[in-house]
Amino acid sequence: DGGITQSPKYLFRKEGQNVTLSCEQNLNHDAMYWYRQDPGQGLRLIYYSQIVNDFQKGDIAEGYSVSREKKESFPLTVTSAQKNPTAFYLCATSTGIETQYFGPGTRLLVL
Amino acid sequence: DQQVKQNSPSLSVQEGRISILNCDYTNSMFDYFLWYKKYPAEGPTFLISISSIKDKNEDGRFTVFLNKSAKHLSLHIVPSQPGDSAVYFCAASDPAGNNRKLIWGLGTSLAVNP
Lengths: 111, 114
Description:
The complex is a heterodimer.
Chain A: E1 4-7, E2 10-13, E3 19-25, E4 31-37, E5 43-51, E6 54-57, E7 64-66, E8 76-78, E9 87-94, E10 101-102, E11 106-110
Parallel strand pairs in A: 2-11
Antiparallel strand pairs in A: 1-3, 3-8, 4-5, 4-9, 5-6, 7-8, 9-10, 9-11
Chain B: E1 4-5, E2 10-14, E3 19-25, E4 32-38, E5 45-51, E6 56-59, E7 62-67, E8 72-77, E9 86-94, E10 101-104, E11 108-113
Parallel strand pairs in B: 2-11
Antiparallel strand pairs in B: 1-3, 3-8, 4-5, 4-9, 6-7, 7-8, 9-10, 9-11
């Protein structure tokens, strides 16, 4: 069953804590992306990776970090430096051309 | 500075009628455009796309029109159904540099009333 998996569906973060959001895909897509969506807002690009072991900052990378050690996985860490982490986080993949395909999302809430 | 603009935050139509969602862009170098549909608390779903070398692309009830001279595209849904109620995002593919990115509009919330 091909697709994009994001876990967990809901995640709670305490003040000063780092949390990691998982994104796994079995579509054999080269490119992966992390977006953030806030209420009433569009999608803002956090980080993206076109190939394994390479990634670039998007428009709002501050307070976030990523790794791309495997083609199938692109985890996003929300660090304590991100002062407003509450949002809906979306992972996407593509063949690197145009169309991006999205996972179901993770909602991050701060306790 | 929004390069992709969806100027109508919301739209309401009657079931069976046509829904027209609009999108404007500022960068004439954008060469591929996409429409996505999004339900609350879910990831966006790809709907339809169009290359800048075309002016129309149709897929079932969905048609996208592109007017390059006006830097304008629109998504037509005919006939509209209650299940079409969702937020629709317009996105443009930026070919600049070696890494293609999608530039997103802020979305239009469509409500189809029975």
